[in-house]
Hints:
The protein has 11 helices and 9 strands. The strands form 2 sheets. Strands 7-6-5-8-9 form a 5-stranded parallel β-sheet. It has a 4-stranded parallel β-sheet with strand order 2-1-3-4, sandwiched between helices. It has helices at 14-33, 56-67, 88-97, 112-119, 135-149, 167-178, 207-211, 235-242, 246-249, 272-275, 283-302; strands at 45-50, 71-76, 102-107, 123-129, 156-160, 182-186, 202-204, 216-219, 257-259. By secondary structure, the chain is α/β, with parallel strands linked by helices. 45% of the residues are buried. It starts with 13 loop residues before the first helix and ends in a 7-residue tail after the last helix. Helix 4 (112-119) links the parallel strand 3 (102-107) and strand 4. Residues 56-57, 128, 134, 137, 167-168, 221, 223, 261-262 line the site of N-carbamoyl-L-aspartate.
Amino acid sequence: xxxxxxxxxxxxxxxxxxxxxxxxxxxxxxxxxxxxxxxxxxxxxxxxxxxxxxxxxxxxxxxxxxxxxxxxxxxxxxxxxxxxxxxxxxxxxxxxxxxxxxxxxxxxxxxxxxxxxxxxxxxxxxxxxxxxxxxxxxxxxxxxxxxxxxxxxxxxxxxxxxxxxxxxxxxxxxxxxxxxxxxxxxxxxxxxxxxxxxxxxxxxxxxxxxxxxxxxxxxxxxxxxxxxxxxxxxxxxxxxxxxxxxxxxxxxxxxxxxxxxxxxxxxxxxxxxxxxxxxxxxxxxxxxxxxxxxxxxxxxxxxxxxxxx
Length: 309
Ligand code: NCD
């Protein structure tokens, strides 16, 4: 697989997704056995460049890089010169001069990682850009599903809540439809973009209808920070209509599994009883899969020698 950067699911195909998941599967086993592969990225530098807050994504990229032996540097915007007015492209030039090999970028502007990819020699990984994409989240979700359902095709997957502002929803529906699943999005009309049906998903505004026969139910956070106006009357009302409770989960298949990318707003988009369910919730496992998938992504991109363009 010749992958220069990982900017979105749009740059992948079913063969490259399967190869990435297979490689990640090996890393799951390696991580569980307590072994590390510290030689693979020895002497390589990974910079985590985060212009937005993150817990899971940043730490899992850090852990993934360290487990593979890379030198990992975390840069967050509040401590960098960007807060002093440096432009994104000046930052890129600075990072380039440091001979960074892998650049993991999170930014509140859609397209920022793609812009950086044109300006730096490093392989760029999009760790979430605005409302656009979050490809490693979609890959880790796919790995989690595949491990539980034995396949990542032919499944009915319902993505619920704030679809409009969610890069997780976008990357997931691109990946899941590409792999041959039936994807449904469920939410109030104010939180579902009108043009979404063109991406091959079906749109539902009622949980009962949308969850009917679902194998997987994904709940998403209400992304208040990206809402320019009040699109939801109140958190309490949202929970009543769209919050994933044990009662609403009965509309899905009896063995349907529950996912959430985190961070969760308990009692808003998901009820604790569902989120913490010992057998039906995959939320903790998603975090574990995140480390393995990011190791697979770093491994794949680092196979390209820096001087090879
Ligand atoms: C998501 C993100 O930042 O896009 N979180 C994550 O990476 N696990 C979703 C969110 O912020 O709600």
